[in-house]
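Late entry, evening session. Most of the bench is empty. Finally got around to the prediction I had been postponing all week. Sequence below, unchanged from the version circulated by S.P.
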Amino acid sequence: MSQHVFKRAGFLAATVGVAGLLGAGVASAHVTANVYGPQPTKGGYAAIVFRVPSEEKDPVTTTKVTVDFKADYGIGSVRTKPVPGWTAQVTKSKLPAPITKDNGTQITEAVTAVTWTAQPGSELHATDYQEFAVSFGPLPTTVDQVEFPAHQTYSDGKVVDWNQPTPANGEEPEHPAPVVKLAAKAADGDAHGTMAGTASTTGEHTEAAATTSDGTARWLGGAGLLVGAIGLGVGAGATIRARKATAKSGGNSQMRGVLVALALTGVAVLGTATPALAHNVLISSDPANGSSVATGPAKISLTFDQYVQGADVNQIAVTGPGGGQWAEGPISVVNNVISAPLRPLGPAGKYTIGYRVLSADGHPVTGELSFTLTTAGTGTPAAVDAARSPGGSAQAAPQPSSSTGVPIWVWIAGAVVLLAIGLTVALRSGGKIEEKNG
């Protein structure tokens, strides 16, 4: 096989893989917290990567890593990125006293640890390191940096604690705790961390801006996936043309290996695409969706998978038979539960609960559910003026917003299809050339 062909294939593989390799360096000698992107801001959200090297000699391996989150940071939400061969567990603890965030959210329990445990065969050996990515928030506003003591467990039972603070003189201790510095909050607030404050003054404009931002992110992310897949296809085509020129020199089998390596590189790059923080998802309600009750509840409670930001944009409306509004009084937000008191219910029939909440990632989420009152009560709906009041909860049911963004799975499916087509054409073309040469 000619040296020219290998140069072209090597250059192509490097081009496709460079995005996935950026930021990956030689593993540090200790556990570190790394930011691959904008520096986290006070009161905002962070996406960081804990890099863990294994330092013991074989056959001793790293089997578990625990990272502590200080309770006084009041971190209400943490999401972990899946790591093949490892399981992640997030630990939350009840706080001795509630913490009220700048946006008004009251935190009564906070994340205090995340533990990753290796499955058999996935442990880290002496020359290995692994990266564990998390996204979390909101960050505290009263400190300039956040510290994450880490504990590394080895297969022989040894535990190494990376928990020593770095002194003021900057001299690194033997086992330093991972640290992430926080940037000052911008004048107009952090895109995620202060969305609640913006929501309270801009009302419906907040939802429109968030929807636009979310749609733009989906289009840009999807376009990136497709461009990556198209680039891989073009590279495969160029490689096939090169192998045709070298078929007579017996380089076909070697070129097939180059194609496979190139494909694996492309898959690795596509696999590094990380979605933005997911919106809140309703996991339960009281009354339950679709349930029947004989007596009207005193309040409506909605429980989400992540905490809800406290903001005036949060709404709960209950519409009864005939269109009357039955929710009244201020809305309460505690951690991941939002609730609103109800007037004593009246006529029997179906009651529809509409909600709009500011999710943990800063985007409004809307939806509706219902329950049925089987026995009529004696209550009367809210007066028209009260139902239209912008400051109360008894408003017309928020309608689920229609998203103009294309779901991320569509982009991923398109990229996979393009990748599969390119690989199929490349391998079939290679097979035909080999048959002719054979």
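Two things to note before I forget:
The first strand starts at residue 32 and ends at 34.
Residues 222 and 411 are 5 Å apart (CA to CA).
Will write this up properly tomorrow.
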